[in-house]
Amino acid sequence: MRYLLILLLCMPLLGMAQQKGPGYVCPPCGQCDTIVYHQPGICPHCGMTLVLRDTASVPQQQPYSICFYLYNGTEVLDFAGPLEVFSYAGFKIFTVGKTKTPVTVQGILKVNPDYSIQDAPAADIFAIFGGDDDVAAGDPEVISWIKSRDATTKGYFSVCTGAFVLGRAGLLDSLTVTTFHNSIKSLQKAVPSAKVLSNVRYVDNGRIITTAGISAGIDGALHLVAKLRGEAEAMRIARHMEYDKYVPGQGLVVKQ
Amino acid sequence: MRYLLILLLCMPLLGMAQQKGPGYVCPPCGQCDTIVYHQPGICPHCGMTLVLRDTASVPQQQPYSICFYLYNGTEVLDFAGPLEVFSYAGFKIFTVGKTKTPVTVQGILKVNPDYSIQDAPAADIFAIFGGDDDVAAGDPEVISWIKSRDATTKGYFSVCTGAFVLGRAGLLDSLTVTTFHNSIKSLQKAVPSAKVLSNVRYVDNGRIITTAGISAGIDGALHLVAKLRGEAEAMRIARHMEYDKYVPGQGLVVKQ
């Protein structure tokens, strides 16, 4: 209601801006990027610095789409951290379950997936998370579905033991990767041709990013935003989230 | 399935332990605390060090119950970080919405609340989170419901602008508190008798803990676990979550 009030108060301003253009816009934060202001300043909704609508930077702001695959037993922070980061980067996020039946994450939270594997649209990035990962990694239908999307998937992002799912889909062969600290040896056994690292927040192989356990997904997501939108954007999001302990570059970027 | 296999392999061992007792148990992590082993070691499920079932520490492990109130527009990391922490501390967490209609958090994730305000059971701790907080703070029915539970609520925990909800319920009067960095002034205006601090991860007033924005909820939750279960337990959870940047004591504990 507070934001609604601010928006109502700003309506005349918006009307002027829309008539006179080009105006100033809030960089996409997933909530207020459709509003146009007639002068520079700060977005009253999220505190971001407004940018010129028609600057050269605008083409960079095309939203990436990202599919969050959720299964019963998904670790809640594994996906919630990246969801927070990617939503402020303006990514178009949707959730997919094997079916549309509610998924219970962390044994507690009941989530209704947006899509099932029968009707999920393509996405630029496929994201998979840890927890009871064998629910997904051990399900031939799910693995087959992930493989079937490979031609249209530009990138993969795994958090924690979500790496086992990518491994089962054959996506980690011969790559340098990481996973949850208690699962380093078992991932190495599951994907013998991979080099599985410990003590690294994430490993970026270009098309495939794997992160360490649970909270490391936040760092991996910020790294992906930095890669796609620039380090300043990642730092802005980290500050907004008060993730002030974020240190850029705490992962490994494998030279292609 | 991997864990199921481990459990099946351990079944004879468990049987022996249950006959001979007292045995060793995994400290509660919300997933594996019902298993009894006949010798010390490491929990094969979560990697925790097993403890004697009948040691003096066991009475400390009685679960706290915690009510997570969710509304449309709740910030996802605000509640997911604490949910992760509290679940590994063995707290009994349930979610409540105004009704049982699915709640959309972060504009993306559709969550089915366990209870509505009509049928939610009492809880030791009431937790409230930021986002479009006026959806809850501006709803007299919700505020009235929170007030009606006060006699049975031992503690309150707010993250980010969730503090506005506690403020509207009259719970922050004359306290030292904190909130999201962009909302310090507006919370001060909303609760003139409170002292609203910036640049602190959390403020603990004894019965009421308020945290700074979004990711600071993780630190506040770890602080609450440290308070109720000891710093070693909070550190164990932080390590498990690979939240290795956790620094105990980055909040303010107000002397009572």
UniProtKB/TrEMBL annotation, chains A, B:
CDD domains: GATase1_PfpI_2
InterPro entries linked: Class_I_gatase-like, DJ-1/PfpI, HMBD, INH-QAR
Domain Heavy metal binding: start-end pairs: 24-51
Segment forming the signal sequence: 1-17
Domain DJ-1/PfpI per the UniProt entry, residue ranges: 65-226
Keywords: Signal
Protein's UniProt name: DJ-1/PfpI family protein
Organism of provenance: Chitinophaga filiformis (Myxococcus filiformis)
